[in-house]
Write a structure and sequence with these properties.
- The chain is an all-alpha fold and 227 residues long.
- It is built from 11 helices and 2 strands.
- The chain has helices at residues 47-60, 65-70, 74-88, 97-110, 114-128, 133-140, 148-161, 168-175, 181-204, 211-214, 221-226; strands at 6-8, 15-17.
- Strand 1 and strand 2 form a beta hairpin.
- Helix 3 (74-88) packs antiparallel against helix 9, helix 4 (97-110) runs antiparallel to helix 5 and helix 4 (97-110) runs parallel beside helix 6.
């Protein structure tokens, strides 16, 4: 059977692959689909994409599903992760890695994206060493244990996410809490990029890896063995 064949439901509410999925790298549950589009075989992928996926899997201990589903479109895969790295791994500005992840959590919750909320809540727990703040923000950021700086940052991110008319007042509120115009760009760019990612995840019906649920909550096996 052709691996690219689909079975479509009557109203195209879901595209179901007809073959048994073989993920491009290791998977504990290869029989469970992670979305409605096919995941290519590893041998069919360009070398640079396989190399990146194997590097991520080696460092993380698992391969996040976003890498698997985007490998279906190699050109978009490359562009997506190039911009992701430009936004999330830059070394300038006043946003920490935890700040960036919290922006994604808050705006992805606003956009009702389970994959991004769960994945980036895990990353926030790791970077912040705070096991509860991301959960609080997802439920109700107004009642979360945020400081004034974090409130200002997320207020601005949600204004961008909700397509409000951004005025000088928005920027002045940020400035009052130590953010400059470059930081405002960073906050807006992260929000905009993940608004796109959220909507793509909705289309794909992208499911989070189970590993994300416990990251930053339980000690890693390596940490336990060293304790």
């Amino acid at each position: 059977m052709n691996r690219s064949s689909f079975v479509l439901t009557s109203r195209w509410t879901r595209i179901r692959p007809t073959w048994k999925l073989e993920y491009s790298t290791k998977s504990e549950k290869p029989e469970q689909p992670i979305g409605r589009y096919p995941v290519p075989y590893k041998k069919d992928l360009p070398y640079d994409i396989v190399e990146l996926m194997e590097e991520v899997e080696t460092k993380s201990g698992f391969l996040p599903n976003i890498f698997k589903v985007l490998s279906y479109r190699p050109i978009e895969f490359r562009v997506f992760f190039a911009y992701y790295n430009a936004l999330m791994n830059k070394e300038t500005g006043n946003l920490s890695k935890a700040d960036r992840e919290l922006i994604i959590v808050a705006t992805s919750a606003n956009n009702h994206c389970p994959y991004c909320v769960i994945a980036h809540s895990a990353l926030h727990r790791i970077y912040s060493k705070n096991p509860i703040l991301a959960d609080q923000v997802v439920v109700n950021r107004h009642l979360a244990d945020l400081d004034d700086r974090q409130h200002a940052m997320l207020d601005f991110a949600l204004a961008v996410s909700n397509a409000e008319n951004i005025s000088e007042d928005h920027l002045k509120k940020l400035e009052m809490h130590g953010f400059d115009c470059e930081d405002a760009w960073d906050i807006a760019a992260i929000t905009a990029f993940f608004a796109m990612s959220n909507r793509l995840a909705h289309l794909i019906d992208l499911h989070p890896n189970e590993e994300f649920y416990t990251l930053g909550r339980l000690p890693r096996e390596k940490d336990k063995s060293e304790g």
